[in-house]
Amino acid sequence: MSSGKSLENKVALVTGSSRGIGFAVARSLAGLGAKVALCARDPERLERAAAQLRGAGANVAAIPVDLRNTNEIAPLVKKVEESLGAIEILVNNAGIGYFAPIQEASEANWDAVLDTNLKAVFLLSKAVAPGMIQRRGGHIVNIGSLSGKSAFAGGAIYCASKWGLLGLTQCVAEDLRQYGIRVSAVLPGSVATDFSPHTGKDTSKMLQPEDVAHAVEGIVTQSPQSFISEVDIRPAQKP
C-alpha cells in the first residue's frame, strides 16, 4: 500500500551525511519516503546517524567511505545498489575547508580540498550517470557555497573548489538533461554547523542545516517539466 509520500521507495545517496547539512538532507529525504544511503569517513558517527534515522522508521544503509580515495567510489555505488536499489537521487554534500593565505598553503592542502569537494563529485556523478541515463531520469544535487561566487582573503583553495563545482554542475546538467536527469546546485551562505568557526556571529541568525535540506527537498520534488538549476540561500538577517 502506498504511503502517499512523494519520494516513496526512491533511493537516495547523500555523501557527508553523518552530521550537519548532509544529515539534515538525509533526514528530510527519508521523511518523504526515500530509502537513504548515508556515507562518511567516521564509522562510529555514521552508525549513530543511521540509528537515529532508523529509529524514526527510515530505511537506511550506512557505508563508511573516504571519498578522497578514488578506489572507494565505485564500490560505494555498488554497495548502495545492492542494499537499497538503483540510485535515483545523488546529493554530493561531502566537503572540507582550508582557510589560510595562499603563501601558507601546501600542495597537500590543495589536494585534500579539491579531491573531496570537486574530484569526488565528478567521479560519483560519472558512476551514477549510466544507470540514470538508462532509466531516463534522476537527480544530482551538488551542495556548493556562495563562496563559489565570491572571493575573500584566505579562501583561495576552498573558493577554487566551489567555483569549480558550480562550473562542473552547469556543464554536467547540459550533458544529462536530454535524458531527463536534472543536475542542480544549492549554494548556501554560512551555515551554523561545526564545519568552520563562526567567531563573532550570532548563530541563531545564521542559516541552519534544515534550510539547506528544504532547498534540496524542493529540487527533488519539483514538477516534471521544470528544472531548478541553482538555488542561492542567504539568511533573512545578517548574523
Explain the layout of strands and helices:
Layout: E1 11-15, H1 20-31, E2 35-40, H2 43-55, E3 60-64, H3 73-83, E4 89-92, H4 107-135, E5 138-143, H5 156-176, E6 181-188, H6 209-220, E7 230-233
Parallel strand pairs: 1-2, 1-4, 2-3, 4-5, 5-6, 6-7
Helix pairs in contact: 1-6, 4-5
Describe the structure.
The termini are far apart. The protein has 239 residues and is α/β, with parallel strands linked by helices. 41% of the residues lie in helices and 16% in strands. It has one domain (11-233): 3-Layer(aba) Sandwich (Rossmann fold), CATH 3.40.50. Helix 1 (20-31) packs across helix 6 and helix 4 runs parallel beside helix 5. The longest helix has 29 residues, at 107-135.
Descriptors:
single chain; 239 residues; alpha/beta; Rossmann fold; 7-stranded parallel beta sheet; 6 helices; 16% strand; globular
Low-confidence stretches: none
**Outline type:** globular
Q: What's the architecture in CATH terms?
A: 3-Layer(aba) Sandwich
Say what the CATH topology is.
Rossmann fold
CATH superfamily: NAD(P)-binding Rossmann-like Domain
Helical residue percent? 40-55%
Number of strands: 7
How many separate domains? 1
Radius of gyration over all CA atoms, rounded: 17 Å
Oligomeric state of the chains present here: single chain
Strand content bin:
15-25%
Largest sheet: 7 strands, parallel
Under the CATH scheme, which class?
Answer: Alpha Beta
Number of helices: 6
Structural class: alpha/beta
Widest sheet, order of strands: 3-2-1-4-5-6-7
Helix-strand topology string: EHEHEHEHEHEHE
In whole angstroms, how far apart are the ends? 46 Å
